[in-house]
Amino acid sequence: MHEALFWQFGTGFESRGQILNVSLFKSIFYEKRTMFDVHFQLRYPRRGKNKTPNYSLPAAIYFVVNVDGVLSTPRTTGMKVLKDDWDSTAQKINGSSDEVQHKNRRLKRIKSDLDALEQELSATMDVVTSQHIVDVYVGKKQKRLTVSKAFDNHLETIRNPYDKEEALKEKSMEKWDRSKELVEEFLKSIKMENLPVIHFTLPLAEKYRKFMVKKYKFGKDHTSRNLSYLRTVFQEAKKDGEVPNNPIYDVELPRSRPKKPEPLTLLELQRLIDFRAKDIWLQQSADAAIFMCFTGLDHCDYMNFDADRHIITIDNVKIIRMVRQKMCRKGYRPEPVEIPILPEAMAVLDKYNGYLPKIKYNTILDQVRQIMSMIRVTKNISMKNLRKTCGTYLLNKGVRMEVVRDVMGHETIAITEKIYTIVYPETIINEFRHLLIG
């Protein structure tokens, strides 16, 4: 009715040649709108007895709601910024990087969400206070953020990191995706698909642990890993200010002690070399295992091995020169290792003309275990056994510890001494032979 009246009077005034200020005229019919503003402020870490702010460290960004001059208590945005990077006038972070643009979009979204909430509350309430707006805003976010949504947010972040060099490998991403599927399956089983993060408490975490053990027969390590993924997701949501706390921050994550891989003995190595199978796939796995036993390559290095690129000749001796994949972390690229090719490894290369069979990890592990059973090796076999066999073999053949360190690609000689100090019985006998004969 007011609008219709406004335009009726407006037309009348204009017809008399009088121009009316629209905002002034509207104030005749409307009550003055509440003064509303969202302001961002920085909080610096404090140090010393006087608790003076340390401006050299990143400051946390807080938001404050102002309604008619009354301020709310500051609430964190979950973001930090250096003093020199903050533009207090424009209320944004200076810079053009993807990370900065992402943070500025989040600040803008917080401001627009609060503004929309203030209008929504003003339409239904006579008096709206700044603190009430903040409390409703935080509460809505907490109730709105479900476990599945929090997981999706975190997966999106790790799939598209700001630093491309920190991107997870495909296998690691598969583990995260599988962990999300497990959580969703559990929530579906208890008919709580849209459970908010704040309601996923410790008792529910223990129920989730039992679910994994009962349905999938997971051990300590597997259940703890999936719970740690979930805890990380909740912790990131807390940092972003989407939940007040991590409800499973104190969840227990027991782990079983890792079993140290045992190297193959000289007799077991010879049985592996002599092994022959009619099944071509089984024989290829045996040959691949021999190559790893006499080069010390991990399975990932074996899969990346290319004879044309990685074999060089020094003083008429063929050498493998390549960078170990597991040493490449967060942009760090180590020096390549140099591994002289022993006769047993060269025989495998010659057999396949340098083009070694590429066999997936789970496939070769299953087949190597089958082979070890056939040649009467009773050890608990993993692919680490093959690499450890190489280092132990070299030491027992009299190769110096420093040389073994370089061949295996260890950062320090202490690692080599810790892992490869196993002495074969044959080595002991050879060392004492002159004493026994004498």
How does this model look, in words?
Helix 10 crosses helix 15 (383-396). This protein has 3 domains: 33-144, no CATH class; 147-239; 266-437, Orthogonal Bundle (hpI Integrase, Chain A), CATH 1.10.443.10. The radius of gyration is 33 Å and the shape is elongated. Residues 1-20 and 22-32 have low confidence and may be disordered. The strands form 4 sheets. Strands 1, 4, 5 and 6 form a 4-stranded antiparallel β-sheet that branches. Strands 9-10-11 form a 3-stranded antiparallel β-sheet. Strands 2-3 form a two-stranded antiparallel ribbon. It has helices spanning 2-15, 22-29, 98-122, 130-144, 147-159, 170-189, 202-216, 220-239, 266-274, 280-293, 299-304, 307-310, 343-351, 361-374, 383-396, 401-408, 413-419, 425-437, and strands spanning 36-43, 46-47, 52-53, 59-67, 70-71, 75-81, 86-87, 92-93, 311-314, 317-322, 337-340. The termini are far apart. It is of the alpha+beta class and 438 residues long. Strand 9 (311-314) and strand 10 (317-322) form a beta hairpin.
